[in-house]
Design brief:
Strand content: under 5%
Largest sheet: none
Number of strands: 0
Shape: globular
């Protein structure tokens, strides 16, 4: 377990890497309809995402489920498109819509975990469990950092610029939707036309 700091750092930098910003966009999209007072709900959502990606990350690293890199790379921006679209179309935040978001986040975590596995599998040696745990903890800390930055930005937009939560959600979710939709189109053509 002496490699814990190394794999923790790899997980942290992997989630916060601006070159692989699709995971950052997904976590930001999750935050779209929330403000600081909703931090408990958001923490539960991020944990659901972590549970999902930890499960498939472990299964993929142990070669228990097959991973098509090009398909997963296409599906990751699709998860962001759907999450952003759900935010845009959501009229209010009731218990059934929150449960739907929770289950969707858990499902999308499964997809993102397979994307992480390609990166992690190339780094692992003989020991797997310790590095896998450290990598997941690093990912979780990175995700929480994204949540803190996004909620802080939301706080300033809502309180200094007096935007409504609905206006902020529409702006943030629409911007993320546009970026993710472009990524989806690019990766779709790479998936089906660059064989």
């Amino acid at each position: 377990m002496h490699d814990f700091p190394l794999y923790f750092q790899l997980g942290l930098t992997h989630i916060l890497d601006w070159q692989g910003y699709d995971h950052i966009l997904f976590v930001m999209a999750l935050c779209g309809v929330y403000a600081w007072q909703d931090w408990r709900k958001l923490l539960i959502l991020v944990t659901a995402f972590t549970i999902g990606h930890s499960l498939t990350l472990a299964l993929s690293v142990f070669n228990l489920i097959p991973v098509s890199v090009s398909l997963i790379e296409f599906l990751i921006p699709i998860t962001i498109v759907i999450t952003s679209l759900v935010n845009i179309l959501r009229k209010n935040q009731n218990q059934s819509s929150w449960l739907f978001t929770y289950l969707l986040t858990l499902l999308f975590g499964l997809i993102h975990g397979m994307g992480f596995s390609n990166y992690l599998r190339s780094l692992l040696g003989n020991e797997i469990l310790g590095p896998l745990l450290a990598f997941n903890v690093g990912l979780e800390v990175g995700q929480l950092a994204i949540v803190v930055v996004t909620l802080t930005l939301s706080y300033f937009i809502l309180n200094w610029f007096r935007a409504s939560r609905r206006e902020w959600n529409l702006f943030l979710s629409s911007a993320i939707f546009g970026i993710a939709f472009t990524m989806s189109v690019e990766r779709f053509s790479a998936l089906f036309f660059n064989r």
